[in-house]
């Protein structure tokens, strides 16, 4: 399953970079195109920060942190390579999304964002962001509901002493 998770990560990076290439080549910077009217539009922007443009201009930090997260994710995936499919799948998505945005930051010192929710005010995001968020939610579900080690650590002390 470790190899499958790496394939998911690679596919996520590939899809992310392909979409960003298409947006960059076909949608002008700051151009807005309706995709699903009143729901989603394609809005090509560049983000020099993280979510909500926080830490804008801190490129060195926004490159270093994902590098650490990528290394930790690969290590954890390898360590648990025979473990939960949910865990490995979630880490594969986080890894792929993180690498997708990291490529932009290293190459351009900013990230191409393009998905704008027209239903409500929300920051413009991209496919890599979706991978990271979906992967993180799946990882939390794994940790809270399926990870046996986390369950044992969260048991009350009295119950552990009784065993």
Key structural traits:
163 residues; three-stranded antiparallel sheet; 6 helices
What does this 3D model show about the protein?
The structure is a single chain. The protein has helices at about 1-25, 60-80, 85-110, 125-145, 150-155, 155-160; strands at about 30-35, 40-45, 110-115. It has a 3-stranded antiparallel β-sheet with strand order 1-2-3. It has one domain. The longest helix is centred in the first third of the chain and has 25 residues, at about 1-25. It is globular and about 50 Å long. By secondary structure, it is of the alpha+beta class. It has 6 helices and 3 strands. The two termini are about 35 Å apart. Helix content is about 65%, strand content about 10%.
Ordered list of secondary-structure elements with their pairings:
Blueprint: H1 2-26, E1 32-36, E2 40-47, H2 59-79, H3 85-108, E3 111-117, H4 127-146, H5 148-154, H6 157-162
Antiparallel strand pairs: 1-2, 2-3
Short summary:
By secondary structure, the protein is an alpha+beta fold.
Distance between the termini: 33 Å
Helix content: 55-70%
Question: If helices are DSSP runs of H or I spanning 4 or more residues, what is the number of helices?
Answer: 6
**How are strands sequenced across the largest beta sheet?**
1-2-3
How much of the sequence is in beta strands?
5-15%
Unreliable runs, pLDDT <50, ≥5 residues? Answer: none
Order of helices and strands: HEEHHEHHH
- Radius of gyration from the alpha-carbon trace, in angstroms: 18 Å
Number of domains: 1
What class would the helix/strand composition place it in?
alpha+beta
Mean pLDDT comes to 88
Described by the principal axes of the CA atoms, the overall outline is globular
